[in-house]
What does this fold into?
Amino acid sequence: MYFEVFGGLAITDVDGRHLPTAPKQRQLLGLLLLHANRTVSVGTCISELWGETPPESATTTLQTYVMHLRRLLARLPSVGSKELAHRRLEIQGQGYVLRVGREECDLFRFERQVAEARQVLAGDEERGCRLLAAALALWPRPVLADVRTGPVLEPAVTHLELLRLAALEQYLDTELRLGRHRRILAELAVLVRQYPTNEQLHGQFMLALYRCGRPAEALAVQTRLRASLADELGVEPSWRIRELQRVICAGESAPEQVPGPFAVV
It folds into this structure.
């Protein structure tokens, strides 16, 4: 059995993919998966499913949703019984906990591979970069892309997306240090449009363009970033971008990476 949260929500077993069809059951499963192996209180479940105005029947309806999820689990070949399904999706205190093994979820694999890559990077940047690339390849689409998100799931999804972005920025930083600026130009061109106020990505794009002998285009990236920051946040670019701009204008040797420390989340 394998749980997937990257892109569409799914449970894969030897006989194929399984998923509840009812939107709120999918939403509940997504909530339990993003908090796997931790107790999610009844109140939290109700808040996610119905917001600030739950129906009087919310607790009873929630119990029904849990029952349907257990039935789904019981039908899976790797579970195979109601008893094991109840062990997978347990009542714990005033809440529920979904038991998921370390090898049974794409999110767990991503987190483990990123942690391994960061340990390796200090001694072997080439291998660490490959590990980061492999981890990022597990995450081709947004988290729970086909699941409605409420007041609990939405910030959880946002947090995970920020973790992915930090891993992506570190991968690109490593590619730059390895001198592979040409290889990441196209990817950076897409990313700066996707994240118009992200200084790290814009700095990486500026640096890659400058190394490719395209200083005017690099400075144009800085100009667009400055306009986006002013329009959306009312701020100026940080000293890191200004320093990179100075280096490009002066025609100095390109640094290995965007100036300043890279913060690993």
Q: What stands out?
A: The first helix runs from residue 23 to 34. The domain at 2-98 is CATH 1.10.10.10 (Arc Repressor Mutant, subunit A). The two ends are 30 Å apart (CA to CA).
